[in-house]
């Protein structure tokens, strides 16, 4: 399979840019507060909430909603072991695809499309 076609086989839940950003951030820490993730990712509250719901449904994160001092709501999010494995695997796949494309291109330099200027110069 050509490396370009492998891009279409990436996990869509993880690959979506906002969710990849969230998972990558969470993989670097034990847990994060909702407002911290919002600031880090630049997403709106509604957009972040929507992406977190999809990640939670896929069992990639766990969301904990509780109150601090009985009246201040706080939402914390942590990545699950499945989420950590999924994001790590995703980055490995992207790196592998990128390396394959670079290698494939390097091996086919002599077969690349001809330079239009050299064709025009040859014709004159």
From TrEMBL:
UniProt KW Amino-acid biosynthesis keyword: no
What span is annotated as the signal peptide, if there is one? none
Winged helix DNA-binding domain: residues covered: 19-96
Coiled-coil intervals in this record? none
Q: Superkingdom of the source?
A: Bacteria
**Compositionally biased, Polar residues: which spans?**
107-124
Region: Disordered; residue ranges are 104-124
Q: Answer whether the UniProt record assigns the keyword Nucleotidyltransferase to this protein.
A: no
InterPro entries reported in the protein's UniProt record? ArsR-like_HTH, WH-like_DNA-bd_sf, WH_DNA-bd_dom, WH_DNA-bd_sf
Provide the GO MF annotations for this entry.
DNA binding
Q: Where are the transmembrane segments?
A: none
Which keywords belong to this entry?
Answer: DNA-binding
- The protein here is known as Transcriptional regulator, ArsR family
Q: Which organism is it from?
A: Melghirimyces algeriensis
The record lists the lineage as: Bacteria, Bacillati, Bacillota, Bacilli, Bacillales
């Amino acid at each position: 399979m050509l490396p370009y076609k492998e891009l279409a086989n990436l996990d869509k839940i993880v690959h979506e840019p906002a969710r990849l950003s969230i998972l990558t951030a969470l993989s670097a820490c034990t847990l994060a507060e909702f407002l911290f993730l919002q600031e880090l990712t630049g997403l709106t509250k509604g957009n972040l909430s929507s992406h977190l719901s999809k990640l939670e449904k896929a069992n990639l994160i766990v969301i904990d909603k509780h109150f601090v001092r009985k009246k201040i709501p706080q939402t914390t999010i942590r990545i699950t072991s499945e989420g950590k494995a999924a994001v790590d695997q995703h980055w490995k796949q992207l790196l592998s695809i990128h390396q394959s494309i670079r290698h494939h291109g390097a091996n086919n330099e002599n077969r690349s499309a001809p330079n239009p200027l050299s064709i025009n110069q040859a014709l004159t």
